Amino acid sequence: MTDAITEMATAHLRAEEGVRKAAYQDHLGWWTIGVGRLIDARKGGGLSDDEIDYLLANDIAKVQRQMAGWPAWEKVKADPVRATALISMCFQLGSQGLAGFKNTLAMIAAGRWADAAKNMLQSKWAQQTPARARRIAAMIETGKAS
Questions:
Q1: pLDDT computed for residue 10 by the predictor
Q2: Which domain holds residue 25?
Q3: Disulfide engineering: 117 pairs with which of 76, 112, 135, 137, CB 3.0-4.6 Å?
């Protein structure tokens, strides 16, 4: 009865370890997350490739939900390259940060790709992460992966 064992072990470990939604240092100072999951590299902790992929897939789905209904997202959501560009910006800046790009988003919604790209490159974001901003702006302008 693997299911019964898993259920019991899950309840037990949640009670023993506690549940934390953010990284914390355990009583010995090792970085930990979730239900006592060691992530501190100094002690051999970390995430598996599958766990990293799972987290990233959840993050991508989350930013897509946050942009749902935005005219710019509606314009690009069937275009994998331009959709990826907006997902990348939202991932980096958060939905509130991306929402601040009002003119750029309006240009994207109107399909004014070159204008949107040019406007993106005039932002503080482009000054802070110039190489990434150039790659994303090129994706918006050309519709081609960078």
A1: 93
A2: 2-43
A3: 137
Question: Who's near 17: CB < 8 A, 6+ residues apart?
Answer: 35, 36
- For residue 40, the 8-state DSSP code is -
Do 34 and 54 fall within a single domain?
Answer: no
Q: Considering its fold, how many domains does the chain have in total? A: 2
Measured between alpha carbons, how far is 74 from 120 in angstroms, rounded to an integer?
19
Are 27 and 55 within one domain? no
Q: Are residues 113 and 129 in the same domain?
A: yes
- 66 and 122 in a common domain: yes
Locate the DSSP E strands across 35-98.
Answer: 37-38
Predicted confidence (pLDDT) per residue in 49-87, tens digit: 999 999 999 999 999 999 999 999 999 999 999 999 999
φ, ψ at 13 (rounded to 5°): -65, -35
Q: Do 67 and 103 fall into the same domain?
A: yes
Q: Which residues of the chain have pLDDT under 70?
A: 1-2
> In the chain, what is the straight-line distance between the N-terminal and C-terminal CA atoms, in Å?
50
Residue 146: what pLDDT?
81
